Input
Amino acid sequence: EPEVTQTPSHQVTQMGQEVILRCVPISNHLYFYWYRQILGQKVEFLVSFYNNEISEKSEIFDDQFSVERPDGSNFTLKIRSTKLEDSAMYFCASTGTADLGYTFGSGTRLTVV
Amino acid sequence: GDSVTQMEGPVTLSEEAFLTINCTYTATGYPSLFWYVQYPGEGLQLLLKATKADDKGSNKGFEATYRKETTSFHLEKGSVQVSDSAVYFCALSKGGSSASKIIFGSGTRLSIRP
Output
């Protein structure tokens, strides 16, 4: 069964450093998303991406965040200057249409120290 | 705005007990509804879905029926197993053929005692 692949599975970074989280969505999917889950809490929407541009973003997705689909297969989330409160599990997801359901990756646990 | 409300956890049951996890939603129009499951240390897996009123989603012995009149999508299983211990998320999406974001409830942690 097709999978969404995320790397790395765990990243530790120092406060103020830039991080890039990588995702390979399912190849024939058109819509891509990033979500985050602070430990034990709700899964929160960050951003959706379609046709090479952001289609929606949440208030969490401020100027420190950016997304890119650089080569037609990867989908990346960059945090420019990490803060302690960015520590969370970050999930990438993709779908062809909402009716089919959304496929999530297994996540990247980001720890900012 | 659109939202999902699900019962507070944790829920602790004995093996072979009947499970209900309540979920209600607020949304305009006709959203698609989902249950996702998160096993310890893992990502989110789609458990079941329903895309229109009165549809019943089912998978692995779990069921949920899309009730528009009560705006509900309660998850049920007739006989739970220890391996069902996980966090369960109810969710909705307005996208249809053009996929908008999925909105999650706060999750319900389920623990099953042998």
